[in-house]
User: What shape does this take?
Amino acid sequence: MSEQVAAHAAAPSGGLAIDPMHQFHINTIYPIHIGGYDVSFTNSSLWMVLVALAITFLTVAGMGKRSLVPGRFQSVAELSYEFVSNMLRDNVGDAGKRFFPFVFTLFMFVLFCNMGGMLPYSFTVTSHIIVTFGLALFIFLGVTIIGFAVHGLHFFHFFVPKGVPAALLPLLVVIEVISYLTRPISLSVRLFANMMAGHTMLKVFAGFVIAMGWMGGFLPLAFMVAFTGLEILVAFLQAYVFAILTCIYLNDALHMH
Amino acid sequence: MASGNGDKFSGDPDAGNGSKSDLADFEARLRKTQKAHQQPVNNAARGTAMGIAFRLTTELVAGIIVGGGIGLLLDKWLGTGPLFLLIFFFLGMAAGILNVLKTAKQLSAQAELDAKSDNQGS
Assistant: This one.
């Protein structure tokens, strides 16, 4: 993206031709084809691998010393552990402890993907709906299976609202089922739209800085500084919302109403 | 729920009945102390009106998408013109509104809880 900005800056007539969506392009790094499917290693895969390595490094190297008085690194690892642990305890209760590894992995993955996207020249994995939808669908199916495993067929009562006249029941059950099916969509769209909108905004305003030049470019530049701060907040907030909604869905499946 | 999990997570498989109640007692006291010392770290994350607004909007839109999607699929499958699309579009809207109400209830309950714990803390 930045090379492109530089290229357009050199040619002042094409100031508006800066493409803010270029940052979302998927580039194949190592082409792999299996059975007619394109499973190439792309820049998106590369960033997922980097994120996984960074999280592993943080937790393994951070807790390597196990000192009683934690250093900076160990503090971060312990804080993130306690953050997720508290979230799980507050929203699911003791029954949620079994799902701690999953929720911790999920939260850290989304958080690091979002934060990694804030680095210059990086690729934001979570700005693609297929990634967030894949995560959300996995959560949705998993939670539904857990619900049936814990409650058996009794789980269908989840779709039957209490204290409703029998005549209205068929209609309301259909509405409840649709409302249950919206979960993966709202979960994935929220994360994807937030990340994509924010990053597009940043690039659009970066284009303004170039287009307005030395005279008026400081205004959008100042805005960008503030907006970068907001984007870091959004990156954290969306990871938090993603994890907490997973907790709420887990709680619904484990304890029903 | 707590009784079922007691022995699973106590970490000591030989724990008898006496130590189990001790453990429960300890856990209760631990939670009380933790709550007393807890700082409102999550409030900033929970807040931001924009986040809440965005959450409610996606719920509403997702309902319509899912409803319309189900209607379209049923129509394609049964070949019944726009009949099911129309029906499920409105059902999807209803589901979206239901979701918004549920989320809003959840958020206000959370806000009440936060306000209560803030009052106790000060």
